[in-house]
């Protein structure tokens, strides 16, 4: 094993010599290769949609795509107004102006509904009339009183366009389902015949409304809102398109902030460590090139930046610089003594090359454990962060030496001050070595207690996907959404599709009666703070028609029990020119949409609610195909996938990194033992999550796999050098002391760089990113402590002094 290590180190030295001799060619080739990817960066896109959390082939997303193709987009923008009096002529005129301005100035609108144009179905003589509610404006107090009574008693309007107490009214904006960029889409409106379409596979790839187009819609809405919003006309905007838009805005703002802070913090740390301009500029240049190449690669493969992937820039800055630090620290030290740049580069690469290979491979493997995640952006992050780490590694061992060879550098004379600073560091590391080797059993005992307490706290971990809860409580979008959820009983929907498989199957009174019973079953449902604010379907329109055709008498607001009469009433409604049937039923009257309005809550809380509804529909519609979809279903699917992804990524990361440690360190026993200082900090971090009731969400689930990939870096450096010193000296305590005195300094510096890189996320706007940053930084620090104390303690206990073994052997023979 020693010979193999020496051969590898010799190869790295030879490679460094080759780069030094061909430094200009090396620089030009590396920059040309990187520029091929960097020029693609402007093509990168952003996606913060709920659908973006799922893979294209996810069954839930395919079902949602089929739903959108048939019925349009269920994501709506809800604009609530809380005036002194809704039923006031002056307010209604202003509402009309607001409605019309939105209709004129907001792009991609498919439908906009408010009290101004709400469906008003009535009968006059033998004629069925479907008109706008305020087609005839109330002129007298009596007419206004009549309007108020009709609005508050209308089951369709309740909790959709008017709150139950009449204090809030709403404007509902539904945007186009398909993107304006979708050249293959059929622009014709109306019923879409899906009878010939395969039920679970869209016939062609549909380009849905893009994230950019969604932002255009929401920006236009807010522009109009700002013109109308005042104390007598307070406006609140909610709905998943608005939430998605805020996520995008926050993400882009935070990303710029993170990158700036990361560069600043890393620059300060590099200056403190090296006190050279080259020691600051070279690592940052190398990492920025690697980062831009990684983002360019994402653009090539059309992988957008999503919420989890926003950590990529600051993450790669911290990790990449940490790799450069190992080479530069050795290079500057050697160069200051010898003054020979070529020899110093070769020495630095030869001395640290193997350890850098091992650390980067394990870091990349920790990240690549996410590549199989059921959450699409987590998988993307794992793949491209892993590739980014490898890009940074290649540039560090190829581009960085070429740059060092090219730029003019002068050896720095070693001053008495610098000698004293090194001596203080040496004393600190010597004290750490003395403590860890002098009290190994006590250290292991304390570690065991921490391990047990962490395992106990694990049972308090709760899963979460609370998009709204990521925002501060005073965030405008959170305030608006919570108010609308409270006053109008919900801001997103659960969609149930009932497919009878029979043409005109929905003319049958039996199935329509069961739909009515389903509405009656659903509307009182409430689990914790998740409730059904409203439910409606095809029967809602049918009851309006039937009442209107029977002299508008309230007693006829029910489903007729004659099949032919039902068919005739639907035909009469279609002949009025209204296209509202398209929103709830297909052209064959075989497939119906059932919509449930609910609040925007932590997706974990949707479990019992969705399960109860799905069980009811599948039980009461056994002959039909029942599909649960809509925004609520996608959010719940996301949290289900989080559970699967977390278990898979943790298992993959642990197994792969353990195997790598065994292979790289060169022994099963020491490889397994070396994982203990890495596992304890991870368990401690998970224990902190449980003890402090922090949510285990998309971001906190990444901490363990990322942290273990980073934590093993220091362990590899420690074990790599410990084995070298132990093999030559035979004394484990001396080997620990020598290892910490030589490698301990680099371990400390890289851990500080990495932890500071993650502490930056404490300045994020959203709580989930703050938790992610603090937990990852905490884990890195705990991993350093474990490598300083627990690792040496284990090595001292399991590795006996070689000389003592020989002496005991001789004594036993003589005896």
Structure description:
Among the domains are: 1-39 and 257-414, Multidrug efflux transporter AcrB transmembrane domain (Multidrug efflux transporter AcrB transmembrane fold), CATH 1.20.1640; 42-118 and 156-238, no CATH class. Mean pLDDT is 89; it is low at 183-203 and 804-815. It is elongated. 62% of the residues lie in helices and 8% in strands. The chain has helices spanning 2-21, 23-38, 59-71, 89-105, 141-153, 211-228, 240-274, 277-300, 312-338, 341-368, 376-406, 416-438, 440-458, 476-487, 509-522, 538-548, 563-575, 606-620, 631-665, 668-674, 676-691, 700-729, 732-742, 744-759, 767-798, 802-814, and strands at residues 76-81, 109-113, 119-124, 127-132, 169-175, 235-238, 462-463, 492-499, 526-527, 530-531, 534-536, 591-598, 625-629, 695-696.
CATH topology of the domain at 1-39 and 257-414: Multidrug efflux transporter AcrB transmembrane fold
Unreliable segments of 5+ consecutive residues: 183-203, 804-815
Shape: elongated
Separation of termini? 35 Å
Specify the CATH architecture of the domain at 1-39 and 257-414. Answer: Up-down Bundle
Question: What class would the helix/strand composition place it in?
Answer: alpha+beta
Largest sheet: 4 strands, antiparallel
The share of residues in extended strands comes to: 5-15%
Q: What is the β-strand count?
A: 14
